[in-house]
Structure formats: structure tokens, C-alpha cells
Design a protein that fits this description.
Layout lengths: L7 E8 L2 E7 L3 H12 L8 E6 L2 E8 L2 E8 L4 H18 L14 H12 L4 H80 L4 H4 L1
Antiparallel strand pairs: 1-2, 1-5, 3-4, 4-5
Helix pairs in contact: 2-3
Amino acid sequence: MNWNPNSILYTCIAIDTTILAEFNSKHADDLTNLATKCLHKTPPFHSTFSHTVNGKTYMFYIQNPFVYFGIFDELLEKPECLSFLKTVKDAFTSTIDHRNHDTLSFHFFQDEFSPMFQRILGFDSEVDMMSSLNDYHVGNSESLRRKKRIGLEDEKSDVYSDDDASVSSGCRVQKGMYIWKKQVMVVLSVDLVVCVALFIIWLWVCNGFECVAS
């Protein structure tokens, strides 16, 4: 399967929280630190886990004792992200020997698997990789500018929605007051009718005001 290299921002092979090999399409230090923090929060009792936030998809593919982790552009579908990590896992398990896990340290397989990552991504050379990354940075800058414009439009839309909600709430309050007043008037009218009826009965029983006179 062919993946768009610009959609794969970072991937690594780790054991527990130790990164054995990694590929980074941006600033290695920044994403390595971020990946380490993510690996410390590897979800237990899962074989796969993903979370999308701020335009990026973070995905774990867990095959004990190894964890295959990647950071992808959100435009890459999650099944494709998982397929990529599975390809990394197959390439890794087919080439490593059964070494003592206690001896594995940070970047233990980096030199060995750096070319592997390039082959999986379809890079024929370092020049191809750097050219693709430069294209990514240019495209990413344009994308950020578009997102900022969209964000401003969304904020305007949110303000408008809040105003609509306030007006709607005010209308509901006014309608509730009107219904309450109408119900009070109905109750008072019924009380008045009952009082008048009792007064008439009283006059009829007392033949007018004779009860008062006596």
C-alpha cells in the first residue's frame, strides 16, 4: 500500500517507554519528547487506540512487549494509519532476532531501521525525503493560514449563535410570564364566580338582608 509521506508526521517502535527506532518528518527533538510522553500513557488492555486532536491523529498499535506509535495528519483515515503501523510491525518482527529485551536501549535499532522507514514511505533517497518534507512545510504553512481564517469565521459564527440563544431565551421567559398571568387571571375569575354564586345563595336563603336585620 502506498501512503502519502506528508500525512505521516512521526512513527516509532518502542518497548515500554523506550524508543528503539523512529522516523520524524519534522523536528525530531520536539516530536520525540511528545512521543515519549504519549508512550508513558499507553492505554492498558488495548491492542489499538487512537485519538484525534488539533488536526493530528495519535495512534497506538500494541503487540506486547512492543508498541508501534504514530502521529498522522487527520486527513489520513484511521484504518490507513493502523495499516501503516501494522506494516512497520511486520517489517520489524521479520528482521530482528530474538534479543534479550533487557539489553534494548534508546535508539537501539535506529541505524538498522531508518532505511526501513524510508522504504515503507516510498523514499528512494535522502534527497527525495528532504524534498518531500520541504513540500510538506510549505503546504502546512498554507494549511495553518487557512485554519486561522476558518477559526476566525467559526468564532464569528459562535458569537452570532450566542446572540441568537440570548434572544431565544428572552422570548421563552416572556412567553412563560404571559402564560403564568393568564393562569392567574383564570383562577381569579373562577374564585369571583364562586364568590358571587355563594352570595346569591346567601341572599336567597336569607330572603334578602333579613338575616342581617335580625
